[in-house]
Amino acid sequence: MEYKTAKNLKAEKSPTITTGITALDKCLRGGIRPGKVYELVGKPGTGKTQLCMKLCLNVQIPRYACGLASKALYFDTRKDFNPARLKELADDLAARLRCTSISAPTATQMLQNVYYVDCRNTAQLVAGLLNCHKYLEKEPNIKLIIVDSISFAIRMVNNVSDRTELLMEVHDGMRKLQLMHDLAFVITNNQGYRRRMSQFQLEAVLGRKHSQLINKRIWLTENECFVGKRAKTKRLICKLLKYTL
Nearest to residue 44, comparing CAs of 153, 146, 150, 188? Predict the structure, then answer.
């Protein structure tokens, strides 16, 4: 057994997955970390899926560039995944990595390291997550799992009680996978109006119990990025340029 001091632990920087947004990476202490659940919240068209696709590529950044040199698994419930756009993003990242090393992965290699699962209904998403450990045993280098979108799948269930039970089952499955395989989850969520007192406020859907089970909630608008569990308490991290996402 090896004993370490707190100073040594602080000095040991574990690799992270960069988001490509400098201010957000700084807020997240380097980026997306294995062992945690991150949620992207925003209206349609704010760049949630685009950021998810970028993360699928950024998880492959080599270790010499402070990356994880790993792979990604993408659960798609909305049919928003765009292979052509992913190829464009891969070409851009590969070109930047080649400037630092001739052994950098090519765009084609990056695309081969993104595994895609089409989930047409809630049952397929739950079954996919619960049986995911079998696939991860064959592909142990998968360190990022995307669920885009968790709210779209869960809200297909009309009964609120059944919906909550199903959501808790999904969270339980994600936690087990994290403990067994040391990977990160990034899920996307939508917004909806909730009545508080006499006013309607725009909040992330799926409820408070769900929000307590995620580690970080990142809010995206067309030109801003926030971090915080609730809309009322979220704080601005940075302005987003049109080409950021």
Answer: 188
CATH of 15-190+210-239, one of 3.40.50.970, 3.40.50.300, 3.10.180.10, 3.30.420.270: 3.40.50.300
Q: Which helix (H) or strand (E) element contains residue 177?
A: helix 160-181
**Are the CB atoms for 192 and 42 separated by under 8 Å?**
no
Give how far Cα 12 sits from Cα of 4, 122, 145, 179, 183, Å.
11, 40, 25, 21, 18
Residue in the structure block whose two tokens are 């928003």: 80
CA distance 78 to 121: 9
Percent of the chain with pLDDT over 90: 51
Q: How far apart are the first and last CA of the chain?
A: 45
Q: State how far the Cα of 129 lies from the Cα of 138, in Å rounded to an integer.
A: 15
Cα separation of 52 and 185, whole Å?
11
Amino acid at 118: D
- Does the pLDDT value for residue 3 go beyond 80? no
Average pLDDT of span 208-222: 91
